[in-house]
Design goal:
Length: 399
C-alpha cells in the first residue's frame, strides 16, 4: 500500500481554503490502494500529523489541535521519507512514500514547498518548482503566454516601492496604458484576495493601497467588456494532457469574490458550500467554436508553463466580440476542480489516483536524468586555503 502524505494549510491567506480542499480529497482517496497520512502546516509554519486531522471539526479549536497532534519534521533517513516527532525524545511517527500538496497561495503553492520536497528527494504530486512559481505569479504567467502568442488582456504592473516613492508616476503609467475600468490584483495571491475593480482614479488609488497590503508586485489589467468567465481543468504533464468539461461561473459582482467562492456571498449561491459555493453552469453555454478554442489554448498555456498534475485555467470571454483571453492558472485549484471531471465520467477518486500516477511517472523520469557527477573537483584542492588541516575553525581565507 502506497503511503501518501497529504500536506495542507501553511502560512497563506488561503490557509482555511486549503484545509477544506485537503479534507475533501482525503475522504475521497482510495483507502484500499493508499494509506493516507495527513500533514497539517499551521499558520506559524509548524508541521503536525495525526489521523484526526482528516476531520474538518478538528480545526474548529486550534489549541486542542496543537495539544494532541504530533508535531513533526519531514526528512530523508536511510532511504526512507519519515515524519519524526520534535522534542527531547524523538521518534519516527510515520513513513510516507509520496507527498501530495493540497495547498493554496504564497509560501506553499508558489514553489517554496515544492523546493523543500525536491531537496529532500521525495516524489510529490503536482507541478515542479518552476511551474509552481510561474503558476503563482500572474505577471510571469502573462509574460510567458504573451511570448507564446497566447491571448491575454492588456495589462501593466509595478512594485509597491515604486508606488510608495512616486505614486503619481505609477498612476500616470496605468492611465496611459489602460482605460477605465481596470482590475487591480496582488500578483501572487489567489482566491480573489485583495482584488478590486476601479472605475476612476480615486477608486484606483484605494484598490492599489488595498492590494499592496498583500503583495509587493501589483498587476493592473483591463476589464473585459460583455464578460463571460469560464474555467477548464487540464490533467497531465508535458507529454500528454487531457481537458475537462468547461464551466461558466456566475456572480452578482464585478468580479468573482472570495465570498462567492468560499462563503456563499453571492445572492445566487448557497452558504456553507466551501469551494463549491459559487454558482456555476456546467457545461458552459459558449458554443462549439469557443469551447474548442478554450480547450486548445488551455493545453498550450499548460505546456508553456511546464505544469503537471491537475490545474484549472480561467478564461475571460468578450461575448459580443466572441474573443477569448486567458485570465490565470491555478496550479492547485480549490477542491482540485473535481467537479469539472465528473461530467466526463471521471469521479474524484479516479482523478486523485491519476494525479498520483502522474507524479510517480514524473519522478521516475527525473531519476533517469543526470543530476550530479561521480568526480569531486575539490579533492586535492589546496590553493588559496590556509590553516584548514587540524583547525577547529576557519579564521581566514586567501582572496
Amino acid at each position: 500500500m502506497i503511503k501518501v502524505g497529504v500536506i495542507f494549510g501553511g502560512e497563506s491567506v488561503e490557509h482555511e481554503v486549503s484545509i477544506i480542499s485537503a479534507i475533501q480529497a482525503m475522504n475521497k482517496m482510495d483507502s484500499e490502494k493508499y494509506e493516507i497520512v495527513p500533514i497539517y502546516i499551521s499558520k506559524e509554519g509548524e508541521w503536525f500529523t495525526g489521523d484526526f486531522l482528516k476531520e474538518i471539526e478538528t480545526f474548529q479549536d486550534m489549541n486542542l489541535l496543537k495539544k494532541y497532534a504530533k508535531k513533526v519534521v519531514l526528512y530523508k533517513r536511510n532511504g526512507s521519507f519519515v515524519l519524526q516527532s520534535k522534542g527531547f525524545f524523538r521518534t519516527i511517527v510515520k513513513e510516507i512514500d509520496i507527498a501530495f500538496p493540497i495547498v493554496h497561495g504564497t509560501n506553499v503553492e508558489d514553489g517554496v514547498l515544492q523546493g523543500y520536497l525536491k531537496t529532500i528527494g521525495i516524489p510529490f504530486v503536482g507541478s515542479d518548482v518552476c511551474g509552481a512559481a510561474l503558476g503563482q505569479d500572474k505577471i510571469y504567467q502573462k509574460q510567458i503566454w504573451k511570448s507564446e502568442g497566447l491571448p491575454i488582456p492588456d495589462y501593466t504592473w509595478f512594485f509597491d516601492s515604486e508606488y510608495e516613492e512616486n505614486p503619481e508616476e505609477v498612476l500616470k503609467k496605468i492611465e496611459k496604458n489602460i482605460k477605465y475600468p481596470v482590475i487591480v490584483k496582488p500578483a501572487t495571491l489567489g482566491s480573489s484576495v485583495g482584488i478590486s475593480v476601479a472605475h476612476k482614479k480615486a477608486e484606483l488609488i484605494e484598490a492599489i493601497e488595498d492590494a499592496i497590503v498583500y503583495d509587493n508586485k501589483i498587476l493592473v489589467e483591463e476589464v473585459i467588456e460583455n464578460l463571460t468567465e469560464v474555467n477548464v481543468s487540464v490533467v497531465g504533464n508535458h507529454d500528454s494532457q487531457d481537458t475537462s468539461v468547461i464551466e461558466q461561473v456566475l456572480t452578482d459582482n464585478d468580479l468573482l469574490t472570495y465570498e462567492d467562492k468560499y462563503i456563499g456571498g453571492s445572492k445566487k449561491s448557497g452558504a456553507g458550500k466551501g469551494a463549491l459555493a459559487a454558482t456555476r453552469k456546467i457545461p458552459a453555454d459558449i458554443g462549439d467554436k469557443l469551447t474548442n478554442e478554450v480547450k486548445d489554448v488551455a493545453v498550450k498555456a499548460f505546456k508553456a508553463l511546464n505544469l503537471s498534475g491537475d490545474v484549472r485555467i480561467d478564461f475571460l470571454i468578450d461575448s459580443k466580440k466572441k474573443k477569448l483571453y486567458i485570465n490565470e492558472v491555478n496550479t492547485i485549484p480549490g477542491s482540485l476542480a473535481f467537479y469539472l471531471w465528473e461530467p466526463v465520467g471521471k469521479d474524484y477518486t479516479a482523478l486523485l489516483d491519476e494525479m498520483i500516477n502522474i507524479a510517480i511517472k514524473d519522478y521516475k523520469k527525473r531519476m533517469n536524468k543526470t543530476h550530479s557527477f561521480e568526480t569531486n573537483i575539490l579533492s586535492g584542492f589546496s590553493g588559496g586555503v590556509k590553516g584548514l588541516k587540524g583547525a577547529k575553525g576557519v579564521k581566514s581565507l586567501d582572496k
